[in-house]
Amino acid sequence: MLLPTPRLCLALGLLLSAWSAHGQESSPYYFGASAGLTHVSNVYRRGDTSNADRVTSLGLLAGLDQRLGRARLRIDTSANNNRYATLRDLNNTSYSGRSTVDWETLGDLSGTVTASRSRTLAEFNIGRGADNVPLPSQQNRESNGEYSALVRLGAKNRYSLEAGWAFRKRDFSAIEYSRYAYSQHSVQVGAYAKPGANLKVGVVGRKSKGKNPRYPVVVSGFPLLLENPYRRTDIDLTASWATGGSSQLDARVSRSRTRNDLLLVNNFSGTTGALTWSWLPAPKLQLRFNASRDTGVESRIQSSDIDRLYHSLGATANYELTGKLFLQASLSRISNRRDSIGAYDNDATQSIGLRWAYSRSISLSCQAARSSRDSSVALYTYRANSLGCTGQFFVF
Question: Which Pfam family, giving just one, matches this sequence (predicted)?
Fold first, then answer.
């Protein structure tokens, strides 16, 4: 099967965008295409071998943003064909889709319903499993699904109530990665108050019930994968403070408790929390800082660890160099201590990029990134760099 080249995609994008700009009215629909080229220095995320490669991606995008009476429907979808120059066994098709419905009644009732689904090539060397299980280097597809519904009563009033439900699930095509699969249902009920114009505080109760189909444990020196149903309860104290429009601070402090049916997995009881600060120090500069302390599923979405505490820090910056040129940078660090004898993992990522918006329909972005892990297990330690560019065009 012949695939379109990046040059052909760009030419087609220019023609379609010109057609859209001349004589076509704006519609709630959009569709488009993308082409990207990325060099990755360490595909398998290993410290003992060289496995650099070049990845070409061609994609299609489509979406909808439509008012339906008092409701609003948003749909965003994308699919990419990813080709490796050397490691051709990793060639794959990835996709993602997300739909959201925001609704409200004539009274004080409103809510949001969300559904999302994605499939991509899983991260190699996730780590944090039974130490002597080999890491697969064959193609491994990761599938994620998340569905949620939230109902609000009196959201615009001084006092309000919320109730919600959510379901999350993760699967892997490679049996070696099944230890990281899980499914989880959760419900929550919260009460909120606005003591001031810029301050909102709340108390939320959350209850979750999930299952790890093949959770890693070690018995008498032998690694095993056993089913582990678990339950978690949280009592959250939340606060949201807007300081004059240029700064937004959101905080959560929780008392959390996890109980596992599998006796070989440690239970957890302690304080968790999260803090996010968004700041606009200048009209063209946006900064965002975040920190969290929580167990694996709640803090590090690519992990299923429910008995290990993670500490994460992150920061992002966006600066408008010109009306069409934007500078973006980010960094993050996630660390955990796996047991009482000093086992640890410290993950870090840094990235910087430029985005050029030629028009509403055409854009080009380039990004350089570095990811690394220091670990007490030598097999999990790695360094990896990537450099790539992606072009997109849309028709509205």
Answer: BBP2_2
Residue 158 is assigned to a structural domain of this protein: yes
- Does residue 224 belong to any structural domain of this protein? yes
Rounded CA separation 249/207 (Å): 25
Q: Is the residue at 1 inside a domain? A: no
Strand-pair category, 53-68 with 309-320: unpaired
Amino acid at 389: C
Determine if residue 163 is left, alpha or beta; phi over 0 gives left, psi from -120 to 50 gives alpha, anything else beta. Answer: beta
Q: Is there a contact between 45 and 31 (Cβ–Cβ < 8 Å)?
A: no
Task: Tell me whether residue 70 is in a domain.
Answer: yes
Tokens 């606060």 belong to residue: 239
Contact 265, 231 (CB under 8 A): no
Domain harbouring 246, CATH code:
2.40.160
Distances (CA, A) of 67 to 102, 106, 178, 382: 10, 16, 41, 48
Domain that holds residue 98: 6-395
CA distance 356 to 365: 6
Which residue, 356, 359, 349, 339, is CA-closest to 382?
349
Number of domains in the chain: 1
Task: Tell me the one-letter amino acid at 16.
Answer: L
Q: What is the pLDDT along the chain (396 residues), one digit of tens a residue?
A: 334 444 444 443 443 444 444 434 568 999 999 999 999 999 998 887 778 999 999 999 999 999 999 999 999 999 999 999 999 999 999 999 999 999 999 889 999 999 999 999 998 887 665 444 556 677 889 999 999 999 999 988 999 999 999 999 999 998 878 888 899 999 999 999 999 889 999 999 999 999 988 887 778 778 788 899 999 999 999 999 998 778 999 999 999 999 999 887 888 899 999 999 999 999 999 999 999 998 877 766 556 666 678 899 999 999 999 999 999 999 999 988 766 667 788 999 999 999 999 998 999 999 999 999 998 888 889 999 999 999 999 998
